[in-house]
User: Fold this.
Amino acid sequence: MSAVPDSVDATLALLGEGDYIADRSLATATFLALRLGRPLFLEGEAGVGKTEIAKVLAETLGRRLVRLQCYEGLDVASAVYEWNYSRQMIEIRVAEAAGETDKERLESDIFDRRFLIERPLLQALEPDLAGPPVLLIDELDRADEAFEAYLLEVLSDFQITIPEIGTIKAEKPPIVIVTSNRTREIHDALKRRCFYYWVDYPDAERELKILSLKVPNAPAALRREVVGFVQKLRAADLFKLPGIAETIDWAQALTELDALTLDPETINDTLGALLKYQDDIAKIRGSQAAELLQQVRQEMSEAGAA
Assistant:
């Protein structure tokens, strides 16, 4: 188990140990959230690296990662806890066979923690020898507002109330990372409990560093052209702009094809690794892809001449 970093520079280094290339503002937000014991609320487009931060923190700090993947209809039974009804019924049958008649005692017995099935939120409050775990509440915007309201107690006091047992409170608060792709607005009451940061698309310099780290076997010239092309795409009028995850996927696909540099035909054949909507692919494929590639090479040539 590693200690929580004591400076922004140490946080940058910690993220770097997990192969996460962060800018200083993101490292600052992460450092403050860790030091102040506040949840870190990360909002941004899909594929920009929000979820990866939680994974990297768990890895580099030597903590257990507890992930709650949100979806429409997520409820307490799936996210927090539920009773093991089959085991409770067996306990009741055994008690009846033994002639147990004290209903209050039987009720107390079957609503014991040994019959409790712990889901991610409750698991994250449990003590751990390695230190408080990293709790990732992923894509909160996909969950219903009712569940979002339920989280207020968890993120405020790091406790959960179970009617049959009482309140379970964490001895030491977990490190909480909440992510949202902003398909809907998250309520201010929840945001107030968190340290907020918008994770944007990386600039060309940082994206090239990420690509060099994640796809080191790709030729240097190919990596530069891939980054330049993706940066151009993000300025286009597309339904879904490619994130850094798609940039990495595309570079890996091109490397598997033994591409040394980009060419219009290869771009057309592999756009599905980069763009995920047919309308976007149809808009870029062909002359538009060739034009973007020409612009990329011209800018690279001018930069080299300078």
Observations:
- The radius of gyration is 25 Å.
- The chain has a mean pLDDT of 92.
